[in-house]
Amino acid sequence: MIQILVWGIYAGCIYILLAIGLNLIFGVMKVVNFAHGELLMLGAYAAFWIYTFSSINPYLIIPASMLLIALLGVFIERLGFRPVRGTGKLNEIFLSLGLIYLFQNLVAFLWSTNSRSIRSPYGDVVLSIGSTKLPLDYLIIIIVTIVFLIAFQLFMKKTTTGRAMRATSQNREAAALMGINVERMDMLSFALGSALAAAAGGLWLISGQMADPYMGGIPAIKAFAVIIIGGLGSIPGAIVAGLTLGIAENVVPFFMQALVAVFGYEMSFTGWKDTVAFFILIIVLILRPTGIFGEKGE
Amino acid sequence: MRKYGILVTVLVVSLLLASSLGQLAGAQSEADEIKIGLVAPLTGGASTTGTDMWESAVLAADEINAAGGINVNGVNMQIKLVKGDTETSREGGVKVVTKLITEDEVDLLVGGFSSGITSADQVVAAEHKVPFIITGASSPIITHRTDIDTTYFFHHCPTTDDYGESTILFVDEIVKPAIYEQFEFADDRPLRLAVLYQDSAYGVGVYDGIKKTIENYDLNMELVAEEKFKMSETDFRTTLTVIKAAEPDVVYPAAFLNEQTLIVSQGRRDVGLNTIYLSVECNDDPDYYTGVERWGEYSIQESRFGPYAIPSGPLQNAVVKFRDDFEAKWGAPPSMMGASTYEGVYIAAEAVKDAGTRDKEAVRDALDELEMPQMVEGMKDGVITFTSDYRESKFELYMQQLIWDESVGETRPKIVWPDSVKETDFVLPDWYEPGSAPTETATPTWTPAPTSEATPVTTATPTEAPTTTPEEPGFEAVFAIAGLLAVAYLTLRRQK
Per residue in A274-290, pLDDT tens? Predict the structure, then answer.
């Protein structure tokens, strides 16, 4: 069971990084970026290409890929979302849907639809803690995610820019009246959200996943589930929901199997993994429509 | 004014003349050419494979045209390929096949990647009775379906039934004896096989092929786990843990490249399922060998045309030449789908030559009777021909074992079966862990008669053997109804 919990925490870390970026963008700009999964995909490709040309330790590449995708985020915000901001939610939604196809087809055109992978230097290292086997890559990813989360919280709470972003998130008009450049905050939040998605993509790739132009779809859906469960705009909510979802996906099928075994039936529930995420989502929405940590009016 | 009138008249007459002459020339050139529509996903998710199919077809057409074309009743005709991009979608497939037939007026169709797309666009070809040589859709349903006239369809790629049969026969003949000798199992112990298949026509097809083979050949094997997963799944750890608990001797995933890579690496690294993994031919690709890293060592890769291993024997030179010519023309080696499409164009040319006309019905009849030497993929009896029942060509599939190659830092495949093309013997690795000995209650599901040696009974009539697994009691429905009731209750409670 501990083994399964570890896998859940690892999966949860990827969801958290992706969901926090989405939440930040939504919190500051009130924009739902459906193309956030594509930023994960582009982050994975950025990591792949930097690794291919440099051959240095792939974990050291992550900051560079984050920087690249953050710059891309700035362009997307300036050229895409800013012009349509305030013209209606539908325009923003269709813009982000358009970006999905744009990025997928662009990557397929530039680099083909072949699957790409990065070889981790620690790929063969598996730590044995009692009966639990923990690949070193998973441990690194969990630690890196914790470091990112601490740095993110410190940035948001201790720096002037972070406080300005929070102020913009809480009340855009009031923040503008206080002299905060809210458009600059939009740009920064999109850049930071994109960078976190790039980190998720890079780490996912290093942990043994494969990159292709369509890899962003499923993680993005999970990230949306995470922010809805945790509460739109809530960073602690995203952390709790990300971990809950990651662990539940891995643990629930076993509980279900054990449960039906009590009644004398043998049945596998591994195919129900994705159903678990959305079942939790439905339950949370019914009991608390604003999400676990969400505030009314979001 | 009169001068302008004359000028306009001369211009109009000139244009009309030029247009008529052009049409005449076009008609003349169309009369001397055979139009082949190449149906492939040139854009979208499978565009890499589609492009490879197109490039292989171009190579074949160029070779045939350079050699003087096809002699059709004394007239040398050139091949003209027409691109048909399915956009990797069913709608795109239907649209482009309609265009190829009605606007481009092609004589034959070649290609057709993906069973889902082909099963949609073949309906159009059936309505118009256009011969279609299918080189990239693996579901047998393509020529077995009865809702349309399939007599114009000729399946030139192994079906999922073929994958299952060759791989399971190899396991029975080679892997099972190696395991039983190493662990001193009794001969009557059924081999414990786990199947992990994609929830799609392809995955279910391979799964069905496995069951049919065990049943038809009366093999002493027990399916101890049958798990399915959604296409593009990325986390197999939970499923592999369930499979590990079933204690299999061998695991057979029916998965695409990105899924197979994760199944093997997560199975060995995360779950500790140290077993022999089998793999379907579509994964015999350089990306797989790179992605699976060392975790793929000693796993089995079924194939018919791969990037690294070349079967010894009569085909060796032809394969090398095809690869070299392709690489010289396009700058990269061809894929498996490219190889069968390359052959598909030659098959089309041969059929038109045999028919002595481009008449579609005559070409269909010629394809029915076709017998031509194998080209770059091994065929049963060395001949490309289509079966009389479902018009399927039968391939000589081979099995490769992945062996670590220190010089490239990746595994490389070595052919281990059949004997006619084998490079080396199958190796059971020292880390291999077999499944448990059978318990008294574990009655083989599809293996009533244990035999010490696999004796193919090709004439066996498949019958549904009794199963000891309790029937699923419709839990999905129970949970769905319970869930809906809970939602309804909570909603009503909130409204109060």
Answer: 787 788 888 888 888 88
**Contact between residue A64 and residue A50 where contact means Cβ atoms under 8 Å apart:** yes
Which sign, positive or negative, has the C-alpha torsion B290, A249, A272, A3? positive
**Residues 208-227 of chain B whose Cβ lies under 8 A from any Cβ of chain A:** 225, 227
* Torsion on CA atoms B423, B429, B435, B438, rounded to nearest 10: 60
What distance in Å separates the CA atoms of residue A81 and residue A70, rounded to the nearest whole number?
A: 15
Measured from the Cβ of residue A122, the count of other Cβ atoms closer than 10 Å reads 18
B472 to A218: CB separation less than 8 angstroms, yes or no: no
3-state helix, strand, coil in chain B (%, to 5): 45, 20, 35
Give per-residue pLDDT as tens, A62-117: 999 999 999 999 999 999 999 988 888 888 889 999 999 999 999 988 988 888 88
Q: Which of B229, B237, B494 sits opposite A7 (nearest CB)?
A: B237
Task: Name the CA radius of gyration of chain A, rounded.
Answer: 20
- Amino acid, single-letter form, for residue B215: E
Determine the residue among A5, A109, A113 to mutate to test chain B binding: the one whose Cβ has the most chain B Cβ atoms within 10 Å.
A113
**Residue B134, helix vs strand vs coil:** strand
Collapsing DSSP states into helix, strand and coil, what is residue B79?
strand
From the number of C-beta atoms within 10 Å of its C-beta (0-12, 13-18, 19+), residue B19 rates as exposed
- Which of B47, B225, B291 has its CB closest to that of A115? B291
B469 part of contact set with chain A, CB < 8 Å: yes
- Report how many domains make up chain B: 3
The answer to whether residues B121 and B50 belong to one domain is yes
Q: Would you state the structure tokens that stand for residue B24, as one six-digit string?
A: 């005449």
Length of chain B as a residue count: 496
Q: Residue B472 phi/psi, 5° resolution?
A: -65, 130
Nearest residue of A to residue B235, measured between CA atoms = A11
pTM above 0.90, yes or no: no
Same domain assignment for residues B68 and B133: yes
Distance from the Cα of residue B436 to its chain's centroid: 34
| Angle, vertex CA B318, rays to CA B317 and CA B319, nearest 5 | 90
**Helices assigned H by DSSP within B285-359:** 286-291, 316-330, 336-355
Q: Are both B276 and B408 inside the same structural domain?
A: yes
Inter-chain contact B228–A117, Cβ cutoff 8 Å? Answer: no
- B406 within domain boundaries: yes
Question: Which range marks the domain in which residue B1 is found?
Answer: 1-29
Report d(CA B126, CA B357) in Å as an integer.
20
Same domain for B218 and B105: no
User: Which residues lie below 8 Å from residue A110, measured CB to CB, with a gap of 6+?
Assistant: none
- Parallel, antiparallel, or unpaired: how do β-strands B191-198 and B221-229 relate? parallel
C-alpha B205/C-alpha B218 separation (Å) is 20
Give residue-wise pLDDT tens across range A221-246: 889 889 888 888 788 888 889 888 88
Distance CA B195, CA B203 (A): 10
Query: The domain spanning residue B62 has which CATH number?
Result: 3.40.50.2300
